Amino acid sequence: MSMERVQMLLNPQQRRKLAKLAKLQGKSIAEITRQAIDIGLEQMTQDNPQARWLAALEAARQLRESMRLRNGESLDIDVVGETQQMREARDAELLRRSGF
């Protein structure tokens, strides 16, 4: 694959996040940046919210698989259950704040 050199400026937080992800995945910062750009461009070009959701789920699946392969162990996370618990906690907090 042919590549072109580009120069870009990142804020310190972006740089730290990229470095942390690169270290976790055993990849270079450049590779993680290219992956993030690919994912971002794909999401930005999709008008369908369901397609964006599926793309995010696929990215999460790929990350989970790479972590599993690197660590040699299974990650048993109930994403749906965790999401539901977070929503319920958020809803309860909103109700509490509104005085209902």
Description:
The protein is mainly α and 100 residues long. Helices cover 73% and strands 0% of the residues. It has 2 domains: 37 residues, no CATH class; 53 residues, no CATH class. Helix 1 crosses helix 2. The longest helix has 23 residues. It is extended and about 60 Å long. The protein starts with 11 loop residues before the first helix and ends with a helix. 0% of the residues are buried.
Oligomer designation: single chain
Dominant shape:
extended
Mean pLDDT across the residues is 84
**How far apart are the first and last residues' alpha carbons, in Å?**
58 Å
- DSSP, total strands: 0
Low-confidence stretches: none
Give the % helix.
over 70%
| Helix/strand/pairing category | mainly alpha
Estimated radius of gyration: 18 Å
What is the ordering of alpha helices and beta strands?
Answer: HHHH
Tally the structural domains: 2
Number of continuous helical runs? 4
What key phrases describe this protein's structure?
single chain, 100 residues, mainly alpha, 4 helices, 0% strand, extended
Q: What are the SSEs and their pairings?
A:
Blueprint: H1 12-25, H2 29-44, H3 49-71, H4 79-98
Helix pairs in contact: 1-2
Summarize the structure.
The chain has 100 residues and is mainly alpha-helical. It has two domains: 37 residues, no CATH class; 53 residues, no CATH class. Helices cover 73% and strands 0% of the residues.
